[in-house]
Write a structure and sequence with these properties.
Elements: H1 2-14, E1 16-18, E2 26-37, H2 52-63, H3 69-74, H4 81-84, H5 103-108, E3 110-111, E4 117-118, H6 120-130, E5 138-140, E6 156-164, E7 167-178, H7 182-201, E8 204-218, H8 222-229, E9 238-241, H9 248-263, H10 268-273, E10 276-279
């Protein structure tokens, strides 16, 4: 976690003071990178508690190609509420709780100019199997033609796979990086995605590389950032991923089962833990910070 803390400190101490879309203001640096060897542990932040069940729920929501935050609500997850129910978005929302043509819909249902529906993720997994040296194994969530059709244009805009020596790595490019709230969540989410895809293609998960473009601390997050920097990080935890899962299709089927059971009244936490959980996770107490919308 030292890499993350170093970028957090750099943004606070050297960042450019910027006005931003939310009106809150940020201190920002540009063009940072973190590399995590997944054989050395799972990149979960330890200087505060990571809401890992929410990480699992959101990734499954993406993989299912969903835009319905009501399904996340059934799992006790409300991280999309500020966008999906924002006043600016309501005139364009297709139904109550619609987040729009967001990550999952772009990953799994990109609409081509000729009307074809493209499952980018499935096509990419097929390339990993059949053409592992390909330089085209990437998935894009930033769709300029549909920016007005989503409640929040993609922050983590694209990711690409690389295969070598029986191992698969993933690089993710994030255009807008909320260092206090968003980045710790995204680190864990894409590391989990890499583990899941590696399971499907029968390769060893290797490196998660996180490219941060505009990496910023919101003005009202500065105290929370400084509190993290005062804490000594713990060793990285390990990931447990249900050994019965064979890949993305299994994950989507499990997600739909979990949502259905939660809507019937079962506690969602144990259901999500049955998909993936962190082992030997030591962390400092939670730090509260308000999401900028």
């Amino acid at each position: 976690m030292r890499q993350y803390l170093d970028i957090l400190r750099k943004a606070l101490e050297e960042g450019d003071d910027r006005a931003d879309r939310t009106g809150i203001g940020t201190r920002a640096v540009f063009g940072e990178m973190m590399r995590f060897d997944l054989s050395s542990g799972f990149p979960a932040v330890t200087t505060k508690r990571l809401a890992f069940r929410s990480v699992v729920a959101e990734l499954l929501w993406f993989l299912a190609g969903s835009s319905d935050v009501n399904d996340l609500h059934a799992l006790g997850v409300h991280i999309w509420d500020g966008n999906a129910f924002a006043d600016y978005w309501q005139p364009r929302a297709r139904f109550s709780g619609d987040a729009g043509r967001n990550y999952g819909q772009q990953w799994r249902d990109w609409i081509a100019p000729d009307g074809r529906h493209i499952d980018q993720l499935r096509d990419t997994i097929r390339q990993i199997r059949e053409q592992p040296a390909s330089r085209r194994m990437l998935v894009v969530a930033w769709n300029p033609g549909e920016l007005e059709q989503t409640s929040l244009p993609a922050c983590h805009a694209l990711f690409q796979f690389f295969v070598a020596g029986g191992k698969v790595s993933l690089m993710m490019y994030q255009r807008s990086c909320d260092l206090v709230l968003g980045v710790p969540f995204n680190m864990a989410e894409y590391a989990l995605l890499l583990h899941l895809v590696a399971r499907e293609v029968e390769l060893e998960p290797h490196e998660f590389v996180h490219v941060l473009a505009d990496a910023h601390v919101y003005r009202d997050h500065e105290d929370a950032a400084r509190e993290q920097l005062e804490r000594e990080p713990y060793p990285a935890p390990a990931l447990w991923l249900d050994p019965e899962l064979r890949g993305v299709d299994d994950a989507v089927a499990r997600y739909r089962e979990i949502v259905a059971r939660a809507k019937r009244g079962e506690a969602p936490g144990p259901l999500l833990d049955g998909f993936a959980k962190l082992l030997n996770y030591q962390y400092h107490p939670p730090i509260k910070a308000k999401m900028a919308v």
